[in-house]
Design brief:
mainly beta; 11 strands; four-stranded antiparallel beta sheet
Length: about 120
């Protein structure tokens, strides 16, 4: 298991940027694929982005493609989500998660989750 703590959320105007960080502790961080998900009030948790163990492959939801970038630094046990051109519809609690395998676009594939960080985009 790996423990995850997100940071970097906040309030930003539409068109602005934020960078989320997720610090991991525990064993073998580099053996996990990492993902970002988000959940808006009254909605289900949805996939945002994922990155493979070594960082060579990345995957994005269509709604954020071209605006968000996921990256990781295995030496620092950290994964990042750079969010640009933010829109009010990006407002949600953002969660970092770790997966040992499975479909990285699915919540059920991720066994470890952080507590979440709030992102609010004003119009």
């Amino acid at each position: 298991q790996v423990q995850l703590v997100e940071s970097g959320g906040g309030l930003v105007q539409a068109g602005g940027s934020l960078r989320l960080s997720c610090a991991a502790s525990g064993r073998a961080f580099s053996s996990y694929a990492m993902g970002w998900f988000r959940q808006a009030p009254g909605k289900e948790r949805e996939f945002v982005a994922a990155i493979s163990w070594g960082g060579g492959s990345t995957y994005y939801a269509d709604s954020v493609k071209g605006r968000f970038t996921i990256s990781r630094d295995n030496a620092k046990y950290t994964v990042y989500l750079q969010m640009n051109s933010l829109k009010p519809e990006d407002t949600a609690v953002y969660y970092c998660a770790a997966a040992a395998g499975g479909n990285w676009r699915e919540v059920a594939s991720f066994g470890s989750w952080g507590q979440g960080t709030q992102v609010t985009v004003s119009s």
